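So, read this over?
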Amino acid sequence: MNIEPVQTEYHIEFQKVSFSYTKEPCIENISFALKRGESLGIIGSTGSGKTTLINLLMRFYDVSHGSILINGRDVRSYPKQELRKKFGVAFQNDVLFADTIYENIKLGRNLSREQVQTAITHAQADSFVQELEGKLDFKLAIKGSNLSGGQKQRLLIARALAGNPEILILDDSSSALDYKTDSLLRKAIREQYHDTTSVIIAQRISSIMKLDHILVIEEGKMAGYGTHETLLETCGVYQEIYHSQM
């Protein structure tokens, strides 16, 4: 396996990536490349393989065929701890602990209260945190059960943003947000984290239509890749999703 770094203008590259949990491939021949600071939206039906792409990028699994590069270097050549430090992630099933908001966002990292507060502001969580008794020192119940779904999602996004990551991954993590909050969140990410490359998995087209690139995935294969405008003209699957939602 060639894991020598190559000189490249790209931050993240998927090169003919395939992967299977069993004999049946669940990801087949996926290729795309993002420059540093660019954004990618991934959309497709449930079970189409969207989250698997993230699991491969972060090396929870290794590709069966092809390669994934970060900064021109195969992800398999990074020590796992060094690789994972590059990411700020909010997964669908992430958990909040029975601790203060500050500790939940800090998550054992060396982050000041100011850094945590900034992330809360950018994640559009400040409006409700300011109303809580103790604010950053407000104690969450187990799994954050004393918050609404949208409040929990915003705190998990704040956790992902707090370390000012090289790569931001949001895995369907704004589904409980109303359209206005979702839109303000995307604007803050665009304006405040312009060196961060972001990958956003979404069910709603409105969450990804303004991103630099969109990957449409259907049964593990690329059904389309391009901008919102291009896909509306060229990709039947994308057109279907668009018309059903808009």
About this structure: The CA atoms of residues 45 and 134 lie 41 Å apart. The longest strand covers residues 12-19. The chain has a mean pLDDT of 90.
